């Protein structure tokens, strides 16, 4: 009808995907990066170059579901398993998958560790993108504490047999990856956090990849996002 208000689009559009608008997630800088297709650009570029049809992908650090959706909608992968510790992000990740008719991604609200362990506390904050396992950061903003399951990374690798690892776990890469048998991988894409893990942590990641038969691949690496592959 003439003069009727136009319904607002509930989605942002990015790299051919529909990203549901959310009052706490798709705001400010994140909104601009999603719309401008610069959100996690280096990691996206590496994934698009390295992931192949029929791959099994293990993603550590699911974030807002952007990367797993990109992989599932742009590559004919067999499956993606996404691990995200932040429980408040899980419903949103699933909403991103649903909006893009993604059916081959399994989301796990769990932490991978260097062995089996008891559940660990995760501190949910008012701005839940700031939620973390570190209680000391802005304690006044904590609204709840959730206990998050820990799973043995080697048991998960043995069960899933992934061919691709995509890892962005805010510095935990320096101690988790060296504990893992990554020999099943064809490709690994890791966002390093040298500001937290230092030179020794960066070296530990590179040494781990080399032990797994994976070689640094500069053509799919940029700044802190480093890619490794088997063979040349």
From TrEMBL:
InterPro entries: FkbM_mtfrase, SAM-dependent_MTases_sf, TRM5-TYW2-like_MTfase. Transmembrane segments: none annotated. Keywords: Methyltransferase, S-adenosyl-L-methionine, Transferase. It comes from the Bacteria. GO terms for molecular function: methyltransferase activity. The keyword rRNA processing does not apply. Residues 42-106 form the TRM5/TYW2-like methyltransferase domain. Pfam families: TRM5-TYW2_MTfase. This is FkbM family methyltransferase. It comes from Thalassococcus profundi.
């Amino acid at each position: 009808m003439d003069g009727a208000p136009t319904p607002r689009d509930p989605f942002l559009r990015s790299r051919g995907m529909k990203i549901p608008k959310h009052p706490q997630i798709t705001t400010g800088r994140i909104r601009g990066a999603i719309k401008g297709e610069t959100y996690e650009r280096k990691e996206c570029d590496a994934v698009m170059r390295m992931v192949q049809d029929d791959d099994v992908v293990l993603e550590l650090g699911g974030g807002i579901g952007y990367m797993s959706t990109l992989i599932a909608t742009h590559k004919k992968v067999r499956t993606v398993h996404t691990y995200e510790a932040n429980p408040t992000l899980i419903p949103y990740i699933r909403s991103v998958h649903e909006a893009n008719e993604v059916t081959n991604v399994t989301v796990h609200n769990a932490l991978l560790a260097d062995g089996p362990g008891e559940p660990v506390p995760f501190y949910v904050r008012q701005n839940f993108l700031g939620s973390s396992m570190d209680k000391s950061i802005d304690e006044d903003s904590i609204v709840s504490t959730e206990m998050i399951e820990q799973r043995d990374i080697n048991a998960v690798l043995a069960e899933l047999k992934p061919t691709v690892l995509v890892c962005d776990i805010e510095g935990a890469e320096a101690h988790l990856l060296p504990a893992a048998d990554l020999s099943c991988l064809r490709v690994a894409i890791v966002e390093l956090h040298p500001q937290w893990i230092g030179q020794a942590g960066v070296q530990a990641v590179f040494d781990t990849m080399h032990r797994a038969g994976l070689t640094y691949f500069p053509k799919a690496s940029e700044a802190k996002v480093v890619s490794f592959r088997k063979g040349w």
